[in-house]
Design goal:
This protein is mainly alpha-helical and 246 residues long. It is elongated. The C terminus is likely disordered.
Length: 246
Amino acid sequence: MGVWIRLKRSVRALFGGLIEKTEDPELILQQTIRDMRDRVPELTNSVSQVMATEKLLARNKERLEGQVVELDSKIKASVKMGRDDVATAYIGQLQQAQLDLQKTTQQLDHAGLASKQALKARDNYVLQMQRRSAEAMQLISQSKQAKLQEQLAQTMESFQIGDDSSTFSEMRDKIDRRSAAAEAKMQLGTTNVDSQMQDIEREALDMQLQDKLLAYKQEMNLLPGSTEKKVNQLPAASSEDTNGNR
């Protein structure tokens, strides 16, 4: 085997492997879908041109049919008027119009068939594109799932249970210590001097409220003995008024 052939084979193998590694199935499939969709407007334009030709031939046929009818009427009128020379000229035009009509009719038949075939081809391509797109999306989903499985496999290969278990245990102990310290601080906070002072101030406020309540009841003669005291004070007040009047 020649050196050149061996070198060529090595280069192809090297670049072929690099290309295969850099090929991303998802990107390639997505680009393929875009390419297929981009061809739809081109096919639609081609079909519209074929259909336009068919419509143009149909109009020409309709025009030639009218011309044949008109020439036939002119020939009959010329013969009736005894103008054989004019009738002969119209007969020549009629033969040419009939020949053109025959050719146009054949072209129209072929154009109609071409329009149907082009439209059918366009519809088949769109249907095939939809199927390919659905298949590509399914393959892309499988590719993503395969990547995920590869990542999980790599993670499992590098996963060491002993190290992670010790890490979880260490973090659990640390969280337990912080939780216990927080509970101890909360307990101390509820038994400090400030808390006791607040209790005393709250008790003093309750006593003031009770004193005010007793004062209201005494003023309204709702306490036992308050009525007798007020009655004993009334004669003195009367006597003082009497002396004042004197």
